[in-house]
Structures
1.
Amino acid sequence: MSHIPAPGESEVNTSSRRKLWAERTHDQSTRKMLADDAQYFLRQSVSTPCLSTIARADGAYIEDTQGRRYLDFHGNNVHHIGYGHPRLKAAIAQQMDELPFAPRRFACEPATALAKKLSDIAPGNLSKVLFTTGGSSAVEVAMKIARAATGRHKSISFWDAFHGAGFGAASIGGEQMFRSHAVGPLLSGTQHVAPFDCYRCPYGYPDLNGKPQLELCKLTCANFVKYVLEKEGDVAAVFAEPARAVPYIPPPGFWAAVRQACNEHGALLVFDEIPTGLGKTGKLFACDHDDVVPDILVLGKALGGGILPLAAVLTTPELDVGENYAFGHYTHEKNPVSAAAGLTTIQIIEDEALVENAAKLGAIALQRLREMQSHHNVIGDVRGRGFLFGIELVSDKDSKIPANDLAEAVFYRCLDKGLSFKISMGNTLTFTPPLILTEEQLDFALTVIEESIMEECKLAGLDT
Ligand SMILES: Cc1ncc(COP(=O)(O)O)c(C=O)c1O
């Protein structure tokens, strides 16, 4: 139990830098709240003990109990429409008055309306839906559908991926933190392959400023999926995030090649769009960038508008094979209040043109970060799409040695300046702002990021 897993999708909560930051930042009342939290909640890596306290969440900001406001470039990817959107709060209040709950055996209008809306906006013919209260459960419903529809149980997924904390979801996930030691044997038949990561290609191929050299690598990462599909011969499905939330962006042609390999080997393709769905990447779904339609698509997080817990599994009528079984059957699967929240959230995203905003400002962000990269030797890689973008800090561009300590130092300095985000894989500053972000807020954040990198490099005597 004392083993410390490799860095995953969030920064560790027990580092000496965090301790120092907390000591100089928290007042008595904050310390008391954190101590109470630590006393009653089970400890967990990356969450409890907590970083700080929160008193308010409003629009693009969170505020702590000492009145400090942070522009929230993390938001657990739930805050697409901003926290506490007035139209969403009104819709939820109205729904609570009209019909607060629906036992599963009774059809209710809001749940049907949301299911219809999702089937209208989803790619391809993903027109059959099940709701759950969380992403992990939705992923596991997808696993069950894939097994039942194919009569096979094996899966292929990617190392480093996160699909949730349940046993099934952790089995296809690729993060040590959720898989190893304490929790014991996971599901059998869950094969993993190395992910696409053009900056640090697991297969050793060189990149050019983070861009894949396709004539050299010939998409070995996709070919390996094909290889395992062929060798196993009876894989039910490939599970993946179409763009990884860390972020990692697939090389051109990756998903088309995997889709084709799945078709050739009778395997389904399941896209986990829990963080990326509903516009995060500047298109409604991340898979729209690659023009590849999965057999099953999983949504979550922002679907509940940042207020209610809601996730969804979408699939085709052909895969509606569980009529004599119960793959979901969650108590709140047709909760009218959550469903009204989901429908209103999508309407807000459409009416306020939030996907377009993420595409436009995301492109500006990437361009500015690339300019920064050209000036600073410690910015090894810049990557992203829409409002899913990040930078890898390294000791220098040639060695690419991950600068984990610098990343942490920059993180705490940014917090001091009013910007919150998270660190992934130890050295990647990961930015996932809400889709309502304004250009001024983006400008503020990018200025804070650059200043903080420069100031921390100076402190550490590093050549920026
Ligand atoms: C890609 C991905 N899949 C699944 C999940 C799990 O969702 P939940 O925490 O709602 O169970 C997450 C949550 O961070 C995620 O990012």
2.
Amino acid sequence: MFVLDSHCDTPSQIHRLRNIGIWNGHGQVDLPKMKKGGVDGAFFALYVPSSLGPEESTAYAMELMADVYDAVGANRDSAAMVTCRQEALEAQAKGLVSIFLGLENGAAIQTSLPLLRLFHRLGVRYMTLTHSDHNDICDSSGPSQPRWGGLSPFGREVVAEMNRLGMLVDVSHISDRSFYDVLECSAKPVVATHSCCRALAGHRRNLTDDMIKALASQGGVVQINFYPVFLDDGFAARLSASGIESVGEAVEAEFIKDPSDPQKREAWYRIEDELASLARPSYRRIADHVDHVVSLVGPDHAGLGSDFDGISVTPDGMEDVSHFSRILDELRHRGYSEGDMAKIAGGNFLRVLG
Ligand SMILES: [Zn+2]
């Protein structure tokens, strides 16, 4: 079995001076925690905020990538950069954690296919087409008013070029119309690297049953996100009633501006503690979403994409990646065969990557 987390925002945290070589009190992901959680590999997402301008977006993605290469390079005895299934299996055999690269937000390629090719050449193996706002590629699920009404003409070229390169198209974050446009355009299976089921939690970022069926019919895979807001409507309501989110955003923005300031860091940790004190859904809720995908389309199209380090609050019992194996224990408890669990743990995603 190869246990893979298809999406975490750890590069942003490395950029905020996290040392992934040691056990961090407050971080959700570092190499010792991955080891403890039985995670053999993870996609580190180069997350580019929608607020950045075009050139800034590219430069920021490159900086994050440099941070990841440096961090993994400083931990050669425990981790390795990988780009394909074979390299990941070789790393696993040597006892190393595999670090893959994904790019979260196509804004980083501006309107340039050469930049897309460069990111691929530098090791990036999937691109999330957009984040919480529309970009030159397609509409996001964030704003209620469309810009393109789905995929833009440039977006169609991007999908075709990603197919040609062998780079996975990630449909997480994009609007429903963009989603169906991508399926129509893509000659290869596509992935949702960190998305939940709308039938279980109404957030518009989640996938409807029809979308899950359409994606699976083309051979793709849905990797369930651990964010309590996407897992559970009750939590989403409690969070929005608490008012912590808006305060938290300002505190986090200060921390991001100056991550070397211990006071700003501590202020952010206090927000995280406050969020954790809300009544949170159990980690078993993640297994409910996996169950739902499996009940719709079978065990070949489900997986796990935590969104750790990009989420300020986690399910109860899944505070960080060191608890990852609990989900597999829960699936085992629910009667999944070892073969099906191996698919969900990472086999499905590696199949599509291949
Ligand atoms: Zn995301």
